[in-house]
Write a structure and sequence with these properties.
8 strands, 4-stranded mixed beta sheet, globular
């Protein structure tokens, strides 16, 4: 059997890329050290990917009256980048179809997984949810192993994630010669 190198996608800011709204990064040495041992890493920042500047005005998740979740400007409420983030998943299809796991940035309105504050139209935090881009990735690749960086810092959770990544890779990418 021929085994390909395992590819994982990671939120760019976690890998030390200064792409956040404030022009900084959120380099996570645990994520970097765990991944550098075994995997090829694709850095993805959906916000810069859709053309948002660095630095840029902050966005947040807002639940609309129809219960849909949108990524909207914190200061400029009329700014809505939801459709652009959803479209970006399709633009990345070739890259995403080659990955065996994804590590997202917690609490991000584009990348959080269950940890991102969701606000009402009036500005009150009402719950936690998934970032728009992360949710679209999960919808398109429902069995893809995903984690937030906080899970990688927890050794048992990290080991479980890595096992799931290897198993996913074996199911989807290892082919008989």
């Amino acid at each position: 059997m021929k085994q390909q190198k395992i590819i994982i996608a990671v939120s760019s800011c976690l890998m030390g890329d200064p792409v956040r709204y404030d022009g900084k990064d959120k380099a996570n040495q645990t994520v970097i050290s765990v991944l550098s041992q075994e995997f090829d890493v694709i850095h993805i920042c959906p916000e810069t990917g859709i053309g948002m500047s660095v630095p840029r005005p902050a966005i947040q998740l807002v639940e609309k009256p129809d219960d849909s979740i949108h990524a909207c400007g914190v200061e400029k409420k009329s700014q809505d980048v939801t459709d652009a983030l959803l479209s970006y998943v399709n633009e990345l299809d070739k890259r995403l179809s080659s990955i065996s796991g994804y590590i997202f940035k917690a609490r991000s309105p584009s990348c959080g997984v269950g940890s991102t504050p969701v606000f009402s139209d009036s500005g009150e935090q009402i719950k936690l949810g998934n970032g728009v881009f992360a949710q679209a990735v999960m919808n398109k690749y429902p069995d893809l192993p995903i984690a937030e960086e906080s899970e990688i810092e927890n050794r048992p959770a990290c080991n479980g994630f890595l096992e799931n990544v290897r198993a996913y890779h074996a199911r989807h990418f290892i082919q008989a010669e």
